[in-house]
Amino acid sequence: MAAPGENLRLNGDRLWDSIHAIAEIGPGIAGGSNRQTVTDEDAEGRKLFQKWCEDAGLTMGVDEMGTMFMRREGTDPQALPVYVGSHLDTQPTGGRYDGVLGVLAGLEIVRTLNDMDIKTRHPIVVTNWTNEEGARFAPPMMASGVFAGTVTQEDAYSRKDADGKTFGDELQRIGWKGDEPVGERKMRAFFELHIEQGPILEANGKDIGVVTHGQGLRWIQCTVTGKESHTGSTPMPMRKNAGRGLAQITELVHEIAMDNQPNAVGAIGHVEVYPNSRNIIPGKAVFTVDFRSHELDRLKGMVERLEAEAPKLCEALEVSFESEIVGQFDPPAFDENCVAAIRNAAERLGYSHQDIISGAGHDACWVNRVAPTAMVMCPCVDGLSHNEAEDISKEWSTAGAEVLLHAVVETAEIAG
């Protein structure tokens, strides 16, 4: 495949304006965005994106999970399309760039090709995956998970939010349940641009992250059971304090992660302590350990160590320990040819870059199971994300989008 020349650039100002125009839909309270999946705000954002795409000559397909596929025809209608995109839904207190950058950069690629009257042999499909965030309905990356066969559509439809509303009903209510069966589309490749959501690129002064792997994940739900009793009248030696088990396992999780540096992370996030009263010693603690690594053997070893050592800590405290894995996926290694297209594009355009591991899950991690896939990352200020203060520069967004443009066009092949 012939690489596009380095003079192929896009309109960074137009991309930047589009990002901030869609941020006016579902504005947060502190400058960010609140466009949670299958809400009225999500529907309104989709309509604006649809209009922009149709203005650019794209035709829309929508599958039964509500994922939007906006197609630019190629000169060979039988050639497998190159897909590019991310997600438009946000966290309740989300930033303006997480997900949105990748979708609108895909649109900007099409606008650029239109401006320059460039045809590609393969069609290009700009994609907005439904419910990547998982904030309102778990799990995250839901629609791409159904597409890749890791989540059933029935299970996805049945998921409930905090008010008891189901995903399927809400998708129908907002009018974005399509009639296209999920997962039947075949892809030549899929590319996703995303902000890093971490501090590495900014700290190293790099314009571009070439994502070679995603992290695998294990969520281990743990239960420590002791005995509820009065904090004032129960002698210290006679206590069976589940909270102490939680505390010591918290330190164990940190120790396990530190012993596996630099290629692993671990923490306890979700915690519930019972009965959660000021003057009652906790009788039970339920919490989730989150271990991640891009090395499968390392990830498995971390889980095995937790399961071996945590019961011993609890036994010494005269409390019991139980655990089960409640969420998992193995580390994805992205397609070598797609990764090379991104790396070569960064070099051709003169952007500084480094290989990087994605610390967060993305739609590309699921799509990678069914099609050649790779990701581009750009820096974000202080690595902050899932926060209304999330910030990037116009220069970073332009650099990421131009690398994406070159990788997509090279893969879609300029028509002779």
Quickly list its features:
about 425 residues; alpha/beta; about 35% helix; about 20% strand; 14 strands
Lay out the secondary structure.
Elements: H1 12-22, H2 40-55, E1 59-62, E2 68-72, E3 82-86, H3 100-115, E4 124-128, H4 142-148, H5 153-158, H6 167-173, E5 189-195, H7 200-204, E6 208-214, E7 216-225, E8 229-230, H8 242-258, E9 264-274, E10 280-281, E11 284-293, H9 296-316, E12 320-329, H10 336-349, E13 353-358, H11 363-367, E14 373-378, H12 394-412
Parallel strand pairs: 3-4, 3-5, 5-14, 6-13
Antiparallel strand pairs: 1-2, 2-4, 6-14, 7-11, 7-12, 8-10, 9-11
Helix pairs in contact: 1-3, 1-12, 3-12, 8-9, 10-12
What is the SS-derived class?
A: alpha/beta
Low-confidence stretches: none
Q: What does the overall shape look like?
A: elongated
Order of helices and strands: HHEEEHEHHHEHEEEHEEEHEHEHEH
The overall average pLDDT, rounded, is 97
Lateral strand order in the biggest sheet: 1-2-4-3-5-14-6-13
Walkthrough of the structure:
The structure is a single chain. The protein contains 12 helices and 14 strands. The protein has helices at residues 12-22, 40-55, 100-115, 142-148, 153-158, 167-173, 200-204, 242-258, 296-316, 336-349, 363-367, 394-412, and strands at 59-62, 68-72, 82-86, 124-128, 189-195, 208-214, 216-225, 229-230, 264-274, 280-281, 284-293, 320-329, 353-358, 373-378. A hairpin with a 5-residue loop joins strand 1 and strand 2. The radius of gyration is 23 Å and the shape is elongated. The mean pLDDT is 97.
